Amino acid sequence: MAVHHEEPTSTSRKLHFPLDSSAYQILGEIGSGVSAVVYKALCPSVNSAVVAIKSIDLDRSRSDFDAFRRETKTMSLLSHPNILSAHCSFTVDRRLWVVMPFMSAGSIQSVISSSFPNGMSEPCIAVILKETLNALSYLHDQGHLHRDIKASNILMDSDGSVKLADFGVSASVYEPNYLNSNSSSKTSSFRLTDVAGTPYWMAPEVVHSHNGYGCKADIWSLGITALELAHGGPPLSHLPPSKSLLLRITKRFNFSDYETRGGTDKNKSKKFSKSFKDLVGLCLDQDPNKRPSAEKLLKHSFFKNCKGVDFLAKNLLNGLPSVEERFRVLGGVLSKNDEDEDEDDDDDESARARVRNRRISGWNFNEDGLDLHPVFPTESGSDSGGNSVFPTESSSESVGKMVRFSGETIIRLSSESHESFLSSPGRVVEEEGAHLVRGDESGESMESNLSSLVGVDSNAGGVDREAMVSGLTAFMRSLDEQRSNVVTLIGLLRGEEVGEVMLSREEQMGQVIERMRVELENERERNFQLEMELEFLRIQISGAYTTTSAGSID
Amino acid sequence: MKGLFKSKPRTPADVVRQTRDLLIYAQRSPDSRESKREEKMAELCKNIRELKCILYGNSESEPVSEACAQLTQEFFREDTLRLLIMCVPKLNLEARKDATQVVANLQRQQVHSKLIASDYLEANIDIMDVLIQGYGDTDMALHYGAMLRECIRHQSVARYVLESQHMKKFFDYIQLPNFDIAADAAATFKELMTRHKSTVADFLSKNYDWFFAEYNSKLLESSNYITRRQAVKLLGDILLDRSNSAVMTRYVSSRDNLRILMNLLRESSKSIQIEAFHVFKLFAANQNKPADIVGILVANRSKLLRLFADFKIDKEDEQFEADKAQVVREIAALEPKELS
């Protein structure tokens, strides 16, 4: 674990910053979000210190203030060189001011978007990840989860030092019992089975937070952050944010993640070292238990010849516009999109609701290309009964399967949109297996993957063909339905005849046949029931005849 | 921290005993040579960390209930809890946090299905005085506050705090300028006022006058937005609790209280308005409204009805709409008969 810096017990709570808004001189806005603004300010009474003030609109948060209480408490009780702590916090009418050290280089995310839209070099990535891991190791050791690791929450100072910020959704594993048993409060929204964080970076077990999750969810997010640093954005982030999930799916359908950013050539002439890919692969293991701890990751070979933070200052900060300028440039765009990507908070309720809407049901990490392909669930309302064929939660104990099939349909987002249809389900499962089968789609690997899909242990030699076939048929049907839904939506939204492009004639015919088959099946069922009823009535009539209780017949 | 303690197979009771010795040492005035003292303090911190590891487990192992029970028993066999709490100011930040978590955890540990922490605190109830006064010390407030909240899980302890002179201080602690400390005090206050129903009902009926006088003037009429908002929310929680029905009846029969709530209804903050409504509706729904209450409601009838006509919350809430409709009906049907 990180070096323990003993602080002299005599020093009272850091420097004493004034608890009065008039003691600060606001210099400008450097970030804004749904319910918070971040200012750069001067504090003349404390050596004219430059500070960042996060001003949170409390009236916009409906809940009681336990979330804020915990955030400010966390920030005043954590003490680590890689963690941005608060100087103080106080209320200014309806706003909560959190006064923090000013990190002059701003967030890593803003550095990326202004200077490295296609990603940073590996030595820089190594320094940033290492410093972040130091912070995570300390946090986890304290029983805290950050729950929102991403480049926009990693801040940098002019000397290249890196600090992890924003504890808006952080949680302490030492508190939940207490909170949950407290019947009078509604603070349970922060228990660790809740969905918190920012979707692109969210670990699968956080998305499917049925069983709760722990520190390893932060490790996943760190893996996504590594991709973000390497590519210039997390998977899918280049797409403009919008309000509705369905719209987002239709927009993203058929786009590979980095297609538009990297041009048409698939590998963008970017090469990553083996140790970096290995590191990211370890972080993005579907099984949280297999992800290494922060402490362990710090010993990974990727950090072997890691440079110091001055290396960052030299390589990243040259010619970088000031935080204020970057905010002005980005700010306009952000406000137009009504989105908050910069250093801000997500602790507003509407933000949390939005977070929920952007769930991604699973990821396929392709280590070779250093790509991650998300798998989106659909709105539960549009689901069909066809999915019930698939194993439900109870059978998902086998660690390999993280993509849930119950109540969800899988859409494969692939760079090769012309990929043959049948291979998609195989690929979906492919990366999920405990024994990862990468790249090759030989019949055998397909088979074992597919068998795990229908809930048969892939290690057992015998495969129940019938179950598999029925599972596959249902899967295909659900895919078809999904596809037709998407086409309809695109049609509705664009008024174009995209449908023809996406659905081949055969597939359409297949769908019609399938639908008719289902109808026929239903018809048969009804027929059978009617016959049964008739039979029943006959018996009753004959009975009534003898007992003369004719009243029971109508 | 892994591996650090592997070589020393000490029992949990050993760790407690050694911690106790070190605490006693730490309490003594620092007359001995400084270097030795630093060493001992470092060892004390390590021991507290180990206590925490036994109670909570770590990344590699879950806590073992047998070990926890041993630790707890030894801890309360002698006066270790008091020693530890007294020593918190002498510890470094990390050890303070560890100590807080240890104290918190011990409150829930059962030995032979008995919460021995409760018995210990009953016999050493003056420890609570130290913890509550922690809110007056910026450095100690969050640590002592967290410990305090765990201790008042025990009903007898909560009763002591409610009936102590400290209760009055909460009205000030809640409004301390440091948000983190004020919020912590507010959380403790809320816990005191809602956790043990019968104790709270008993307390409120005995202390009604001063308590609500303070509550109204210091909290509901505070100039601080967050104080008002938290106070009106908590007031709703208290009054709507069935065990406090006698207190509620008394509260909604006071014209002063009504005036305060009507002022809160007029606030520009939606959140305060809504919380105020949940208290105001009790005044309106009261079937035995005193004449002066009826008088005020009748005098303000048109204004109130206009207010409620545009009174909406963002999310759809059937219960809220139903309550509102009923309040509107009640007010519309009022006749100022007894005043005429």
Automatic annotation (TrEMBL), chain A:
Biological process, per Gene Ontology: regulation of stomatal opening
Q: Which PROSITE patterns match?
A: PROTEIN_KINASE_ATP, PROTEIN_KINASE_DOM
Q: Which SMART domains does the protein's record reference?
A: S_TKc
Give me the residues that bind ATP, please: K54
Sorted keywords for this record are: ATP-binding, Coiled coil, Nucleotide-binding, Transferase
Any idea which GO molecular function terms this record carries? ATP binding; protein kinase activity; protein serine/threonine kinase activator activity
Coiled-coil ranges from the UniProt annotation: 513-540
The domain of life is: Eukaryota
The chain positions of domain Protein kinase read 24-303
Belongs to which family?
A: Belongs to the protein kinase superfamily. STE Ser/Thr protein kinase family. STE20 subfamily.
Q: What is this protein called?
A: Protein kinase domain-containing protein
Protein species of origin: Rosa chinensis
Q: What is the lineage of its organism?
A: Eukaryota, Viridiplantae, Streptophyta, Embryophyta, Tracheophyta
TrEMBL record, chain B:
Q: Where is the signal peptide?
A: none
Under Gene Ontology molecular function, one entry of this record is: protein serine/threonine kinase activator activity
Q: Which domain of life is it from?
A: Eukaryota
Matching entries from SUPFAM superfamilies are given as: ARM repeat (SSF48371)
Q: Which InterPro entries match?
A: ARM-like, ARM-type_fold, Mo25
Q: Name one GO biological process term.
A: intracellular signal transduction
Describe the family membership recorded for this protein in Swiss-Prot or TrEMBL: Belongs to the Mo25 family.
| Protein name per the record | Putative armadillo-like helical protein
Organism per entry? Rosa chinensis
